[in-house]
Design brief:
This protein has helices at residues 22-34, 64-70, 97-103, 109-115, 124-136, 149-159, 163-167, 172-182, 187-210, 217-230, 291-309, 317-334, 342-348, 375-379, 417-426, 435-439, 471-477, and strands spanning 40-44, 50-53, 56-57, 78-82, 87-91, 120-122, 141-142, 234-235, 240-242, 262-267, 269-270, 279-284, 406-409, 412-414, 446-448, 451-455, 460-462. The protein is α+β, with helices and mostly antiparallel strands and 483 residues long. A 5-stranded mixed β-sheet has the order 6-5-4-1-7, with helices on both faces. It has a 3-stranded antiparallel β-sheet with strand order 9-10-12, covered by helices on one side. Helix 9 packs antiparallel against helix 10, helix 11 packs antiparallel against helix 12 and helix 12 packs across helix 13 (342-348).
Length: 483
Amino acid sequence: MKRGGCPAKGALPAQVFKMFDSAIHDLRRRALAAAMPGGVLLFAGNDDAPTNFRANIYPFVQDGCFRYFFGINRPGLIGLIDVDAGESWLFGEESTIDATIWLGAQPSLAEQAEAVGIRHVGSPADLGARLALAKSQGRAIQHPPAYRADTLLKLAALLGSPTDTVAQHRAPALTAAIIALREIKAPEEIAEMEAALAVTRAMHHAAMAATRPGVPEHAVAGLIEGIARGADLHLAYQTIFSGRGEILHNLRYDRVLGDGELVVNDSAAVSQRGYASDITRTLPVSGRFDPLQRRLYEAVLRAQQEAIAETRPGASYLQLHLGAARVLAEELIGLGLFRGDPATVVESGAYALCFQCGLGHQIGLDVHDMEALGEDNVGYDAEISRSTLFGLKNLRLGKRLRPGMVVTMEPGLYFIPQLIDLWRAERRHAELIDYDRFDAFRGFGGIRIEDDVLVTETGARILGEPIARSVDEVEALMGTGPR
């Protein structure tokens, strides 16, 4: 672009076009169409969302399904796949001069479509007319579930249907076809996740170096978030950095780190093309784990390592979770917290007093990949259904693994005083739990260790360069940064 001039034709803003080659998106749409018997498939991209007034918006995050099939990271777009005609369409408004004044020159709708291998474009009015025609012809119009209110209203207007009808829309064949495609990650997707992990690694090592007694939690949280932004990446989710690690998703940073406590750091970056990473480490604020902290930390690490070692095609994630729970139960029996046989502690569900969540979940374009399609649809199937047992019901993934799936492995121990009190009052699993012994752990906090794992043809591998994880590796980095 010449200084003071207009953008050359076809000059596309980088933030809009961080996508794969057009052939990849075209192949994805063709594969989805081939899996469907016919009809029209509608994919509503996300719109900008205001914070406290219309022009002050949250950072834009594109809908995962729209981005997978249509690639464009820009608000206000809708994609359509006409299965019967073998066509893909992109619908949206052309940029106005007002938008250019505030946001700069934007590519035309046709230029955006061409970048992802689409030849047909139209306005929202064109889309409405096309959907009305398909409806009059008795053709099926299917779409993924709407999880945002603005998307629900948009679809209701386009389809001429009440919002309740659109909200209750179920498309099991479409959902199953999307999941089958998205859960198997291609090499270019793995490369994106590992690019994100390179920045996430720097975030976690910086947190270890900066953590010491007397440091406010928000200072470390701000440091690691700045590393992501300094790499021109965004966070995959809101950072969890807390000495109250027994609160699984603690999003407050209002404490000052104290000597002798543990801090859980669950933070990660998302790649330029929208692929997430998800890493957790637990840090000794004083720089060294005390003997009890070390023993429990190494138990959690051993549970994770054994789960990864057992990961292979055909293995059920449910059994990996139960195996990790057994490792933790064995250690806690040794500490006098549980009584009896480890298998009984796990089968009864008593172990969930301190392992209340699941072993992990799928990860990809969404940090909890495809969760908008329904956890049970993504994580379970006709063979393996979700348990209703406390703790185990929180397991997001239970079905058998396939080569190309990427999952998190994040066992943990969480000593929640309110839960201990509740179970004790109910005398729940009283024959298996020593509640007097649990009282000694009321202020312990929590431990979580998490990595992202690719299921290979023969086993599994942890994605990305190693992030300090063993006791010795973590302690070697603790407090080494500038004060």
